[in-house]
Design brief:
112 residues; transcription (chains A, B); 12% strand; 3 strands; elongated; homodimer; DNA-binding
Chain lengths: 112, 112
DNA sequence: AACTAACATCGTAATAATACGATATAACGA
DNA sequence: TCGTTATATCGTATTATTACGATGTTAGTT
């Protein structure tokens, strides 16, 4: 793409955008939802669950991990992933910090 | 990109991903934050505020509008944008529906 | 050691997103 | 009407993302 002009924006704006990008694919949402239910899973679970190739799942997992949403622990031969609890809550707070800033703007909410 | 296999995922997963994509650029976060403060703005406000070209701002505004996050009203010669209140709250609920599903997973939060 | 199972990484083709100049379009005022 | 102001849209070069086969890597098994 054209290069995003990161320097024009605040640290918070860039951070929120990076986090949102991690959520911005249905496969990654599906992975997160699976983990919210199952607490833990390995790559091959998700290959069966989602029907994407192993390499593709691995790539999505890495992106979620890079964003800090997941952590991975070696479990014998396989890699066990789970949601990173502290970061998850921080992300929640960051988004809600934005969501909650909306203000009532008129009797019928006619802002503009 | 390789084509995203939308049909593999649920409606909610695809919707969340589309919304997250709308948030996944610092310029769009900046636009939303500006609107949360100012309630209303026009294209040229943002050109001055953000330092991106007029065409670029217009493109970002369209994406935010397509995602349902903004609404626009004609105001004489210019276009007045504001946050779409109902959709904004629905988006908030959708994300929190996900954020809040995290469960305590152990004495030290060692999930995996 | 040889084999297997489970992943990660590489390479790459296909496709999407970003930025912006150039060019429409539309409303208002003189 | 003509010019001005404010946006939208088009075209396009550049860069990023997605998916997956092929190949590497590592831990356990026989």
């Amino acid at each position: 793409m054209g290069v995003t002009k990161t320097d024009l924006f605040t640290k918070e704006q860039n951070e929120l955008a990076i986090l949102a990008k991690a959520f911005a694919h249905p496969a990654r949402i599906a992975i997160l939802q699976h983990l919210l239910k199952a607490n833990t899973c390995i790559n091959s679970d998700l290959v069966n669950e989602l029907g994407l190739a192993q390499a593709t799942i691995s790539q999505h997992l890495r992106e979620l991990k890079n964003a800090g949403l997941l952590q991975g622990n070696i479990e014998g031969v396989s890699m066990s992933y789970c949601i990173h609890p502290e970061n998850w809550n921080r992300v929640k707070d960051l988004f809600n910090g934005m969501f909650d800033k909306i203000q009532h703007c008129g009797p019928k909410d006619e802002c503009c």
